[in-house]
Specification:
The chain is built from ten helices and four strands, in the order H-H-H-H-E-E-H-H-H-H-E-E-H-H. By secondary structure, it is of the alpha+beta class. It is elongated, with a radius of gyration of 37 Å. It starts with a helix and ends in a 27-residue tail after the last helix.
Amino acid sequence: MRKVLSIFSVCLLLSCTVGPDYERPEFYSDENIKNSLNLKPINNNSVSLEWYKEFNDSILNDLIASSIKHNPNVGVAKERLRQARQNFKINKFSMFPTLDADGSYHYVKDSISYGVPISTDYFQSGLDASWELDIWGGGTRLTESALALVNAAGANLNNVRLSLTAEVASNYISLRQTQEQLRISKENQKLQQEIYDLVNEKYGLGLTDDITLKQAQYLLENTKAQIPVLENAVNAYKNSLAILSGELPGTLDDKLIDVQPNLVSKQFKYNLERLYQLPIEIIRNRPDVQVAEQNLISDNALIGQAISNLFPGVSISGFLGYQGAKIPGLISSNNSMYSYSPVINMPLFHWGALINTVELQKSKKEEALKLYQSSILTAVNDIRNSTDKLEKEYQSNASAYQAWQSQKEADSLTLDKYKQGLIAFNEVLSSQQNLLSAQQSYINSNANIYQDIISFYKSVGGGYQTKLKSLYKPIKECNQPTSQEH
């Protein structure tokens, strides 16, 4: 027994961890990223989780809170995080000895070749123990990989919440935009009905011709045709928001009625300097980038786990209990017994499977490395595009507002001149169409500002830049031994 303990003590002292330790790859320097995004030095390095509350809309706030709580996709992400945690706990203790209670009956009959056939039977009860030593750190690497997958699942949950928040906000702005377009169309319908009635009255008195009457009718009917389309779009956005909130379509209709003043009826004021007051860490801590990096860490650790299978394994099993011919009196000092079986397993011939497993895992790690690089590029590109788009939209919005105001004045003057009989009706028709177009363009631009702000906050992670758990560190590193496996 002492010899066995001595052998295992030496094995434990010599144990180490094979395979590459993870080091974060630096594809692009912080300075280059800062220059690409025109970032400025800042003191505050955080983004609020509740950035959408800047819009000052209580209905939107309630919708987002409800969706985070009830949306099934969030529930799926939570369950996957729970599964990853359980898997980590399973792997964390896989290197520890196991102990089982055992009760059994044995019957043995020797072959006739022994001479006189002998048969024996006995009962056995006690504790079975087994332990496979983690000499090369395969179990350690497996635990490291499992912890990385826990972190990846946590980051994925944050990414689902971020995407959901942005999607609810985007659909809500689209709803308000469509409702405002519908309101404008109905107001124009009333005005155009008055114009048509005026033209029809003149036509009855013989003061105008058929062409003018048909033009007035065309203007009115064209506006009427847009209203059912807009009403259908309003219903579609309401249904989408209900689904995102985990509700059946139609259940939120009363809550999502048109309110005045509408959110998109005027320009939202946003400090554009904030677009460039970002910490560089916001790139690598974006949830989807964290998912990609944690998958890379997991695949990197599995290389070491695959390498450990190339080398001898050491395990021990033992039994401590009682053995006797009868159940009565089985548990007694006379029937006590124990056994132990140390085993050394040396891989010799596996048709190249073990070596190929190592190469396969290295390839998976390289794939994960490229995906991580791609996620960083995507993050920087998203931020750059959202900031550029928002700045340009504010410039466009100022022109759209001026165009709308100018056309309102022109339309009022045009209608007055027509009533005085100074101009033909086709000028009224053209003016009305231009007014509707200018007003719709301004409303669309207001909505685009909101959408671009939503895109910006989504691109910077929306406040979900959480610090992940530190990696499981191997107790002892060692030089990677070489082995020939065929």
